Amino acid sequence: MSKIWKTTTMLAALAGLGLLGLNRAQADEVGQSTIYGDLTFVTQDMLNQAEHDGNNFLMTHGNYSQTRYYPNSQINAFNVQHLHPAWIFQTDVMESMETAPIVVNGVMYVTTSFDHVFALNARTGEQLWEYKHKLGPISVYCCGPNNRGVAVYENMVYLATLDAKLVALNAKTGKVVWQTELADPELGYSETMAPTVVNGKVLIGTNGGEYGIRGFVRAYDAKTGKLLWNFHTIPENSVGVWGTKDATGHDLHRDIAAEKAALAKLGDPYKRLGGGVWQNPAVDLKLNRIYFNVGNPSPDLDGSPRPGDNLYTDSLVSLDLDTGKYVCHYQYIPHDVWDLDAVSPAVLVDVKDNDGKIVPGVIHAGKTGYVYVNDRRDCHLIRFSEPMVPQENMFALPTHGIGTRMLPGANGGVEWSPMAVDPHLSLAYAINLHQPMHYSVAEAAYPAGKLWLGGAFKVIPGEPQWGNITAVDYDTGKIAWQVRTEQPMIGGVLATGGGLVFTGEGNGYFKAYDSKTGAELWRFQAGAGVNAPPSSYTVEGKQYIVVGAGGNTQLDYKRGNAIIAFTLY
Amino acid sequence: MRFLCSGCYALFLALLIFIGQSSPSAAQNAPEKAALCASCHGQDGVPLDPTIPVIWGQNEGYLYIQLRDFARGARKNDQMAAVVQQLSKEDMQALAAYFSKQPWPNLGQKAPPSDIVKKAEAIANSAQCPQCHLGGYLGAGVQPRLAGQSQTYLRKTMTDFRSGARANNDWMTALLKTYSDADIAALAAYLAGF
Asked: CA-nearest residue of chain B to A462?
C-alpha cells in the first residue's frame, strides 16, 4: 500500500465516521506532506500560507498574523474527551519551559531553558538531534533562563540565546551554520524570544528593560547573519508630548513641571531607557510592515532619572519591513512607573471600527488587563476592552517603604503569554493573572548592567491570587466569557478549527474549552506546570496537540522537562 | 584592615609582591595568578577562614562580575581590592573561567535543625529566592550558587547587603532590608547545609 493511498483511505474512513470536518484544501495538504515524505525545507510561500496550513505549525504564533488559530478540526468539541497522550519526550533540562513547538512536515523543533534545541520525530517523539548552546559566562535575565522557541526558514533553524547571540542551525543536523552577537550581555542584553523569518530576514528584538539597555528590533540576513537594519525602540528624542493620561483615560499623576526641570538638568535619557521587546513581531505582507509591542522603561519603578513620555516604551510600533524605518506608533502608558507594559505579542485581525466598517486591526493584551484594538494603517486606538481582571487604585504612584497597593500587579493582567484568536467568532482569548502587589520606589544610580528596578513590586502575602481565561470580542470590546483558574496564568493559548481553546496551568492541568462558551471539555494532569503556548499539527492524517510541561521560574510553578503530544487515535 | 587569617596574609603579601614584580604582560595565564588566590580561598578550594567565600565551582559569570565590581569599587573589600588591582579584564575572565571549572568543595556543613529549616523555607518561598538562584540553589551565569557556601560568609554578606556595606546589587539590598538578624541567620544555616 502506498503511503498516499493509505492516508487517503484513512481520511476517507474518518470523514465517513463523521469525525472530520476537513475541507478539500486541507485534505490536499495532508496528501502533499506524504507525497514528498520528510520534506523539511520551508519556503517563503509555505510561511505566507501558514494561516491555512492544516499540517504544519510553522511559527511561534502560528502565522504572520500571530493568531495562534490552527485550522484543522479533526480534534473538535465533540470528540476532545478522547484526547490522550500519543507520546512524551523528556528533555535534559529541568527548568521553566516557554517553548512553542514548531512542526515542519513531521519534524518538530522545541527548545528548553538555557538554550537547548531538539529536533523530534513529530509522530513518535523520537529525538533526531540536539543542539546545546554553549552559553558564554555572562547571561543576565530577569525572569528565568527561558527560551520561547525557534524560527524555521528554508533549510535552517534560528535561535536567539540568553547570552544575546543569534544562531542559525542546519535543520537536518543541528550543526551551527552561523552565529552573531547581538549586543553585550554584560550590559544586560539577553534573548528569550523566538525570531521571526520573512523574505530572507531574521527579525529579532531584545530583553533588558530591567537593566537600563537601549532596546532594538533588527533584521539579519537569513543566509549570512549580516545585519540588514536596526531600529532603536528608544528614539534620540524620547520626550514625546507630556501625556498625562493612559490610553483608557486614567490620570497618571505625573508632575510635568518637575519632569521638565529634570529634563533641563539631565538631558534626554534615551541611552539607558530600556524598551525591550519580548515577543515576535507580526508581519503584514500586504502593507509590507511589521507590528510589535515595546516593553517598559528603565528603571521600572523610578521615573526621576527619565523625564518625558519615554518613547516608544509601552507602545505599539510599526516599521517598514524592508528598511526598518518607523511608520507609526501608539503609546498606551506614557512615563510608566509600574512596569505595566506591553509584552504579549501583536495579533493582526480584521476588526470593526466604531462605524461598523471592517478595517485592518492589530490587537494585543496588556499587563493592565485590557485588550487594545488599534488600526494597522496609522496605529491609532480604535477601542479597548472591558478590564479582564480587577483594577484597583490604578496608576497610584509607587511610594517609599512598603509601597502602594495596586491592582493589577506588575506581572499583569496579561504577561508575555500570547493570545489566540478565533476569526470566525471575532474572539480573542487571553490568560490573566490576579496578583495584588505593593509597588515601592527606591532611587538608585544606574548599576551598569545589573537589575535596575528603582524599587520593588512585591506580592502581598496572605492576599488571594488567581487567574482567568477571558474571551474578548474585539469588535465590541465586551467580554464574551471568562473562566476562573486556581492560580495566576502564564503560558499561552491555542485556538483551533475544532471549536476549541487550549491552555495550561501552573498546577499541571492542561485543558480544552469550548471556544464559544468557555465550557471545560477536557483536562489532563501533566505532573508539572503547563506554562507554554500549545501548538497543533497533522501528520499522515492524524491531528496532534502538543505542549511543554516544564513549569515556570517567575511564578515558581513546579518544574518539569516534558513535551507531551496528544491525539485521538 | 582586619585580617582573620594571619598565616595566609603573609603568604598573600609575598605572592602579591612576587606577581607585582613579574612582567605585567598578558603572558601571565590564569593558573599563575590563581596561585595568589589560593592563599585565602584555599589550595583545595576550602577557604582558609570561614569569612572567605568558596570560589571553586562557583558560576563563571558571577565570579567575573564580582572581580569586576571589586575593581570598580562597586563592591568594597580591602583584601580583594588589593588583589584586583593586579588584574586586567582578560585576567578576570580567565580566572573566572578557571575557578568555575574546579570542583565545589565539601565544607562538611550539616543541615540545621528542622525549626530553622522551616523558618528559612518560609522566607525563601515568600521572597522567591529560587526564582533567581534556581533549583537546588545552584544558580547559573551571573546568579551565584548559594548551596554549600560557607555559613559565616553567607551571614556576613547578607548582613552587608542589608546595611548597604555590600552595595553592588540594589535588588538584594532592597530584598533583605525586610528581614531580621534571626531571619538572615536561618537563611545562612539553611543554604550552607543545602
From this structure: B126
CA distances (Å), origin A314, targets A553, B99, B157: 24, 42, 37
Q: What is the grid cell recorded at A55?
A: 499540517
Instruction: Find the radius of gyration of the CA atoms of chain B.
Output: 17
Cα torsion for A47, A52, A57, A59, to the nearest 10°? Answer: 40
**Residue in A19, A12, A10 with CA at minimum distance from that of residue A77:** A19
3-state secondary structure A69-93: EECCCCCCCCCHHHCEEEEEEECCC
10 Å Cβ neighbour count for A84?
11
| A129-139 confidence digits (pLDDT tens) | 999 999 999 99
Query: Does A556 contact B61 at a Cβ distance shorter than 8 Å?
Result: no
- CB-CB neighbors (< 8 A) of B100 in chain A: 137
Residues of B in contact with A461 (CB under 8 A): 126
- Residues B81-97 have pLDDT tens digits of 999 998 999 999 999 99
> Is A339 annotated as catalytic?
yes
Cell numbers that stand for A221 in this block = 540576513
Tell me how crowded residue B118 is: count the other CB atoms within 10 A of its CB: 12
Q: Which of A53, A246, A339, A473 is catalytic?
A: A339
Phi, psi angle pair for A50, to nearest 5°: -50, -35
Q: How far is CA A448 from the centre of its chain?
A: 28
Q: Which three cell numbers stand for residue A403?
A: 509601597
Task: Tell whether the model's pLDDT for residue A466 goes beyond 50.
Answer: yes
CA distance B44 to chain A (A): 23
Beta-carbon separation of A444 and B170 below 8 A: yes
The rounded distance, in Å, linking the Cα atoms of A299 and A336 is 10
Q: What is the 3-state secondary structure (H, E, C) of A260-297?
A: HHHHHHHCCCHHHCECCCCCCCEEECCCCEEEEEECCE
Indicate yes or no: CB of B142 within 8 angstroms of CB of A144: no
Name the residue with higher pLDDT: A232 or A39: A232
C-alpha cell at A57: 505549525
Residues of A near B (CB-CB distance < 8 A)? 94-95, 114, 135-141, 143-145, 162, 186, 442, 444, 447-448, 450-453, 455-456, 459, 461, 553-554, 556, 559
The answer to whether B16 contacts chain A (CB < 8 Å) is no
Domains of chain B: 6-100 (1.10.760.10), 114-192 (1.10.760.10)
Q: What predicted TM-score, i.e. pTM, was given to this entire model?
A: 0.89
Which one, of A355, A217, A196, A223, lies nearest residue A284 by Cα? A196
CB contacts < 8 A, A to B, total 69
The predicted-structure confidence for A192-210, as pLDDT tens digits, reads as follows 999 999 999 999 999 999 9
